[in-house]
Amino acid sequence: MLVNELKNIFKDLKEIDIGKYSYLKYPKFLPMMKMKVKSYSLANFGSIMVMETSMMKMMKLTTISFTPSSGINVPFLLIDTMSMGKKRIAFIEFYNTTDEKYLSLELLKEKYQNIEDYQEKEAWYVNERMKGSLIKCSTSKEENLLLEMIKDALTQYKNIIDNASYNENNINRLKEFSSRM
What we know:
Blueprint: H1 2-9, E1 14-16, E2 23-26, E3 33-42, E4 46-55, E5 59-67, E6 76-84, E7 87-95, H2 103-111, E8 134-139, H3 143-162, H4 169-180
Antiparallel strand pairs: 1-3, 2-3, 3-4, 4-5, 5-6, 6-7, 7-8
Helix pairs in contact: 1-3
């Protein structure tokens, strides 16, 4: 479902052949986790990776990673969604690899303050996130709220891309960020 939303918002995606990495299993001999991976390029931006993971039909996880490797003034974006039983979790994590401020992302967080925050454990990367990041949870009955929030975040992100300038220093900032992560 998220992949369709991604393609509806980012119409210029070009799929990249990743060969044997497009379908992975773990562990190898008795695969409990199955992963479908797709990679896309987006002109004047960089790349987008999508990984859909299922674990014994009990849990589904989708990860979408937006890597602005062209030097564009856009933050790195990581989206994770998980469904397990009736539980739903969505992480929309923005990491600033530029000198820019993104007020529209902070306003997005205000818009969805009524959705329960997911109580995550302390981790070193939490302090790296931008203020506009959304870490939310709900039940299967309220899953549409999380999907609406993700669609809004993708639309805001696309608007930022469409209006962004470039700064070559962002390429090094992205590399530094990647080495920390």
